[in-house]
Amino acid sequence: MLSWGFDDSSQIISALLVYLDLCEGKNWWHMEIHPCWSLRMAYITGKANKKDDFTTVLPLQAKSSLSPASLRNFLAAIDTEHCNLQSSLKTPSKAVIPEEHQAKRALTLAITDSDSTIVYYKISDGLVSPDSGPKIPNEAGSDDGGKEDGRGKGRGKGRGKGAKRKASHNAVS
What we know:
five-stranded mixed beta sheet; alpha+beta; about 20% strand
């Protein structure tokens, strides 16, 4: 990164912390660090799992000022730089981002703090439907009391103690 002319040492440290976290802590595959000349920052590409598509990660410091305009600028700059990188290579890079993902212009921000804490936020251009979230198994023998489907143990058809109290309280007032 120093050879690219990036002299912001805190940004370089953030990029290296994120790179090491993704490689060693999260076991990502095909990791590469790329320059983003327009932002004078480095970004990282890699795969969370061997068969996944590539993800683009931009390391930032917690003290960075973020606004909707700066987020849009990050998306546009990284997308443009990565497209330029791909077209300038004679041999294809391992980090070829599929066309359908480039069109979404998605980016993961890796926000680092001085104590080496890293928080990842995925941003995208436009509206994206949310993930369905983790599936919680609801087995007959589970001890959750039916909380996943809104029912508690021993209560039938929503008539628990709380419902009776509320009804009697309303009758008094």
